[in-house]
């Protein structure tokens, strides 16, 4: 619970720097940048932090895997764009999730759907914009899977770094 309180305050005070924004523009293509910069600033901050964690832990990854995983980190939550999720509604969703033992996805309100479905929504956004990298789409689609059920090493690293941040 303390983690969630810290997460809330971190989100309402989130900022990014010009250097970080320039870096994102170097990593992502034009359509991906458009999606990324459509995220609220606290989600941008979170995604940058996930990418930075991956940079620290990348270890034995080859250059292509590393670059793909950094992109996945920056784009993993783009399914939250224009969904009504904000620090308050996310807090409500987290509380709802604690009591939703079957993980049944409610039909309303929209922000609760987005909380559960944002990985798939993100994949839809990328596919609509012509991004067909199957590994990138796989990583984004599955980034909320239980880490102990995952065998793909790239996905494990993304999940680990997402959970840290």
Automatic annotation (TrEMBL):
Residues 45-148 form the HD domain. Signal peptide: none annotated. InterPro entries: HD/PDEase_dom (IPR003607), HD_domain (IPR006674), HDIG_dom (IPR006675). It comes from the Bacteria. It holds the Pfam family HD. This is HD domain-containing protein.
């Amino acid at each position: 619970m303390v983690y969630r309180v810290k997460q809330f305050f971190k989100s309402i005070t989130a900022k990014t720097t010009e250097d970080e924004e320039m870096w994102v523009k170097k990593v992502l293509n034009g359509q991906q940048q458009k999606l990324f910069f459509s995220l609220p600033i606290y989600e941008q901050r979170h995604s940058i932090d996930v990418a930075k964690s991956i940079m620290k832990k990348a270890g034995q990854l080859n250059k292509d895997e590393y670059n793909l995983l950094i992109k996945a980190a920056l784009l993993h939550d783009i399914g939250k764009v224009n969904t009504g999720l904000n620090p308050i509604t996310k807090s409500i969703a987290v509380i709802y999730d604690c009591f939703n033992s079957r993980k049944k996805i409610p039909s309303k309100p929209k922000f609760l759907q987005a909380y559960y479905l944002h990985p798939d929504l993100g994949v839809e956004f990328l596919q609509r914009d012509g991004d067909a990298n199957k590994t990138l789409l796989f990583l984004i689609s599955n980034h909320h899977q239980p880490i102990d059920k995952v065998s793909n090493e790239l996905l494990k690293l993304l999940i680990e770094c997402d959970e840290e941040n």
